[in-house]
Amino acid sequence: MYDFNYKRATSVEDATSSVAAAEEGKFVAGGMTLLPTLKMRLAKPSDLVDLTDLDDLVGISVTATEVTIGAMTPHAVVNASSEVQSAIPALAKLAGLIGDPMVRNRGTIGGSISNNDPAADYPSAVVGLGATVHTTKRKIAGDDFFTGLFETALEEDELVTSVVFPVPDKAGYMKFPNPASRYAIVGAFVSQGGQGTRVAITGAGPCVFRVPEMEAALAESFTSEAVADIKIPDEDLNSDIHASAEYRAHLVTVMAKRAVAEAVG
């Protein structure tokens, strides 16, 4: 691990101003990705600004139409929330499938989507539910937030403060997990409601993506059979020691079918 300056932020304003003033500052939320990256010397920030004490970024608010989750809310809290379980069961389930208990108790939704690992679970929920990401500077539609491999629309000193999920009429999430890390080799989040019909895939490509052909089919008939014969090309999909691009393309259809089946009960 390289040397760096460490600061524990006392407010959101303190955090953003500290990162802005640093030569190469980074926010630290749960640290589930950043700390291992630092230990392997794959990153060399000049300053780390710890968000642990920012209690105003922690919490869940649920109305009849929206679920708002503070950026520093751990996955375990989302998973255990009876309000989230009632409003968007698929979102609560997704949070409970992330990593292991240690990861779920330390990792946060803001950190997860800001890191935008191609195999992370939360990006599929953000896109699959048509959520809005609130930051210290603006509101960003979920469809515009994730821009590429480990890349987002965030500016260097811009901090996610919360994520607002519209409550759908129905939604489901299914993933084929890596047996060791529990990351999604392929995960599919489907929903139907005020944001239309959505199918968001994680793990298969460099970044979460939607499948318009499946969305059109499900808009006509929200059944597993509607997507059973829809195949996606594998040219731009990930291929590694865990799964080939061809296998991931196959899993997209399989996981989408299972997610729809879960959504309709």
List the helices and strands and how they pair.
Blueprint: E1 5-8, H1 12-21, E2 25-28, H2 34-39, E3 47-50, E4 60-62, E5 66-70, H3 75-80, H4 82-87, H5 89-96, H6 101-106, H7 109-115, H8 122-128, E6 132-135, E7 139-141, H9 142-145, E8 146-148, E9 151-152, E10 160-166, E11 170-177, E12 184-193, E13 196-202, E14 209-210, H10 212-220, H11 224-227, H12 245-263
Parallel strand pairs: 1-3, 2-3
Antiparallel strand pairs: 4-5, 5-10, 6-7, 6-10, 8-9, 11-12, 12-13, 13-14
How is this structure best described in words?
This protein has 265 residues and is α+β, with helices and mostly antiparallel strands. It has 12 helices and 14 strands. The protein has 2 domains: 46 residues, 2-Layer Sandwich (Uridine Diphospho-n-acetylenolpyruvylglucosamine Reductase, domain 2); 206 residues, Uridine Diphospho-n-acetylenolpyruvylglucosamine Reductase, domain 3 (2-Layer Sandwich), CATH 3.30.465.10. 45% of the residues are buried. The termini are far apart.
Can you give me a brief rundown of this structure?
By secondary structure, this protein is an alpha+beta fold.
